């Protein structure tokens, strides 16, 4: 079933209002992001692109603790408030870290096969199905051969309590998507063409009854 998602302008307005409150979502996001870091081999990356970087929390985390000191980071976001917060947070990294404002369309401002790792956490679950497909084809275009895309998104529950949570979430999303920030549980693996991507790691984590799917894919093209 095709879900009606937030228009770009509504997503921008929501995340402009939400701003720093995004960092309080760590209670369900951080376990998934730790899992991503544990399997993404950031220590091998020389360039990282993040789609929907929010406040720059994840970028700060990997620049400080996981990326080589020579590695560069580029983040983009649709929300001017988020871009402002991320730029301020990443100021200390100078030329190594850049953040740009996007118009919401899923087009990456990068040449073909120019980046080692692409990251996107809790953003694909806001996008339409067409934009998720565009995200994957843009990722295939810009990532280097054997480069990685590292994803975390809300997903359907896998236990009885988390199934109840995700069903209620879906009901609220269908009635008023902006109440849940335009996010809904998705199954990223179902969008993946296994001829183009090697599935390196997949796990569903469910802290506090909220399920997240973590996926690491390696480009075969
Ligand atoms: C739920 S937040 C997640 C932020 C961050 N990745 C994190 O995990 O903390 C979603 C982010 O995606 C951004 N976003 C939503 N739609 C977008 C789009 N079409 N293009 C770029 N960014 C988008 C929002 O502005 C917001 O910062």
UniProtKB/TrEMBL annotation:
Biological-process GO terms, alphabetical: methylation
SUPFAM superfamilies: S-adenosyl-L-methionine-dependent methyltransferases
Source domain of life: Bacteria
Methyltransferase domain boundaries: 48-144
GO molecular function: methyltransferase activity
Keywords annotated in UniProt: Methyltransferase, Transferase
Species: Zooshikella harenae
Record protein name field: Class I SAM-dependent methyltransferase
InterPro entries registered for this protein in UniProt: Methyltransf_25, Methyltransf_Superfamily, SAM-dependent_MTases_sf
PANTHER family cross-referenced by the UniProt entry: METHYLTRANSFERASE, N6-ADENOSINE-METHYLTRANSFERASE TMT1A
